[in-house]
Amino acid sequence: MLLITTLVVAVSIIYYNSNIERINLQYKSLMQEFASLQIKRLKWLHNHYPKYNKYPRDDRYNSAIYDLEHDLIFSTLKSNKINFNKKLYFSDGYAIYVEILSDYYLGAKYLFIEVPKNGSLIAKVYKNIAIYGISALIILYLLGYYLAKLFIKPMKDSIELLDCFIKDTTHEINTPISIINSNIEMLKKDNLSQRDLKKINRIKIASRTLENIYKDLKFSMLENIDKATKDKFNLKDLIIERVEYFAMHMESKRITKELDLKDFIVEGNRELFARMVDNILSNAIKYNKVGGKINIILREKELIIEDSGVGIDKKSIAEIFNRYSRFNDSEGGFGIGLSIVKKIADFYKLDIKVESKINEGTRFIIRW
Amino acid sequence: MVRRVLFIIFLTQFLKADFTTDCVACHIQKRVDLRKTFMNALLVYGGENNFKTALFYYCKNPQPMTSVMSEEFLKKHLPLTPIQIDDMQLKKDIDEYWKRYKIKENLK
After folding, report:
1. With A204 labelled, which of A20, A139, A308, B27 sits at a CA distance of 20 to 30 A?
2. What is the ipTM of this complex?
């Protein structure tokens, strides 16, 4: 866009300059004729002076003569700007041409010839620049737009394809995860050794992580969340349920939790709220230290989830809700979790705030 | 008596020192048109100051090489003789000469 504009402007400037030169040349050749005519007349007057003393005049031009000391001898000029150093100049709507005489007729070294400036000549140049410049701009813009579209189309196609693929895959992941989860639950744990039990727990954690990822993906594939059903539920119960769900995750990192929950009836989709809480919780676990702490406080119209994790530096706080951004690269994940939190909070018009201190922890505050 | 004679001498000296007696008389005698010499000089010397200083110098050292007149014309007047007028008076005469033909004021 910028390139096209500069190109058109550059061409216009070149066109303008060449035309100015052409116009100047036109003026020059016309005024040179006047000048030689005037010189002839001055010569005649010189030879017949002082018997004749009428300065030669012409309807087509005004003129003036100056001596070599730049003193005025005689002038019929209308413009009062006199420049001895230029061959051609413009002043007060006049074009002025300067001829230097080799024979000083009547003592004149400089002869000024003045004609009214022809405005239509330059106006035509401006008109041409306006018409051709603007049409060139429009055509080039359209061309650029068309080409951009042409180039972007394959990219768009491949993005769509990728989207389709993720959608299908997401759908396909559901069944195996459910099978793993339900089978682990059904497993008879009595006759398992302590070590096997530990292994089973790890599998359980892994499959729940997987389940979370699946739910996040499913959410991001969701075309519009306004279609979500409206429920009325106690957020306290939901939080207890979700904390329970992540209990094993916390245990594996020896994270202790402290809950201070009051009843708070919320209106909205329960599943969406679960997504929000899950994502904040899983972050609080993921970025926590081994043996760290998680505090959850729920009051009327306020939910606070704080951890004693690595923290986020000030610069990154602004970006954490962006898609695919991660606190740091030490932990895996898609980085879409917090963008989902933000999306849901925005949908329910909740105010969400993040406070964090490096190596001390992070606090999420959600207010209704 | 002596006073009177001195006065007359002074008067004649004074009367003599004037453009008509200094320049015109000789020019009439030599048939050299002062108008033509003026216009020729102006053609070459251009401005007032340049004209006056150049002519002053020429009057004291007339040379065919620096003359503004044509060679044919000069042939009739060779050898050129420097004008015997003192500097102050010569300057005055030249000023008078310029005033007589001054273009600037006379053009209409």
Report:
1. A308
2. 0.83
